[in-house]
Amino acid sequence: MSLREIRGNTQILQRMKEAAATQVVSHAYILEGDASVDKLRLAREFVKAVICEHRQNDGTSCDLCVTCQKVDHDNHEDIFYVSADGNSIKDEAIEEMQRRLANRPNAGNRNIVIVEQADTMTLRAQNRLLKTLEEPAPGTVILLLSENSEHLAQTVRSRCILYRLHSLGTELEENIKIVAAETGEQWLNGEPFYKLVKAMEPALADKTAAAEFLDAMEIWLRDCMISLYDQSGALTGGAIAGGAGGQNRWPQSARELKEIARNCGKESIYNAIEACEEARQDLERNINTGYALKGMLLK
């Protein structure tokens, strides 16, 4: 995924792309949006665009290079994450961040910090952060993710570029059924785990997207099972067809679904459905969305 696949917030996205393309990047940003806005995803895609080895002309990341892959897998050596310890981000966390920023970057020319739930910082932590905002080391980029920036001190806000975000979306998320069908086909065909995670990436955005993905996945698996017993071609105008016009609701045809089901066997489909149900139960128990869905693929 890259910035070009995110929809909404057009002006903000354009500014981010221009900053990445020209490398005129501020030392600090506040990404403000309510809980339904996936600010972390936007922050990561912006970071990818800034440090990508093969940045596109439009200021978006290539999404393929080693640097992009490291960002996607949360193991880039020059990106440091700060999050709340309990109900707040404390002074010690910002002190550790400052120690990291005092070191030269390992892989590139930028040290990047992403602060989740930034509006939970204690006043002492904000005062410590202010010192870094006033005199940032060269190449420093700090992204503060916040639901309400008014909870941040005015002295902090005044030293950051503020982006107020509305809901985000992607082309894939607009049709979660396609995401489920393509992921399901790769899953039943035994594709490597990293490919499966990449295919279902939009479903990892939040709990709502994950639940919709599981709904679509189970319907797709059901249609695969039904295809094994469909002798009359009823699926072409029934379970697979989406309604008027006879257009398939899945990217695969009825014949392709039957081929997938034959190759993997009924037991594999049953096991996949059971894994989906277990993932749904994990979500209901408030287990992390990524853990629930990724764990499903490993069963």
General description of the model:
- This protein is of the alpha/beta class and 299 residues long.
- The protein has two domains: 3-170, Rossmann fold (3-Layer(aba) Sandwich); 173-297.
- Helices cover 48% and strands 10% of the residues.
- The protein contains 13 helices and seven strands.
- The protein has a five-stranded parallel β-sheet with strand order 3-4-5-2-6, with helices on both faces.
- β4 (111-115), α5 and β5 form a beta-alpha-beta unit.
- α7 (176-188) packs antiparallel against α8 and α12 (266-284) packs antiparallel against α13 (289-297).
- The model is unreliable at 236-247 (pLDDT under 50).
How many domains make up the coordinates? 2
The strand order across the widest sheet is 3-4-5-2-6
Number of helices: 13
CATH superfamily of the largest domain: P-loop containing nucleotide triphosphate hydrolases
Number of beta strands: 7
Question: Remind me, CATH topology of the largest domain?
Answer: Rossmann fold
Helical percentage: 40-55%
User: Please, what is the oligomeric state?
Assistant: single chain
Give the CA-CA distance, first to last residue: 25 Å
Structural class: alpha/beta
Radius of gyration: 22 Å
Biggest sheet features: 5 strands, parallel
Indicate the CATH class of the largest domain: Alpha Beta
Low-confidence stretches: 236-247
Overall mean pLDDT score? 88
> Can you name the CATH architecture of the largest domain?
3-Layer(aba) Sandwich
> Could you give the order of the helices and strands?
EHEHHEHEHEHEEHHHHHHH
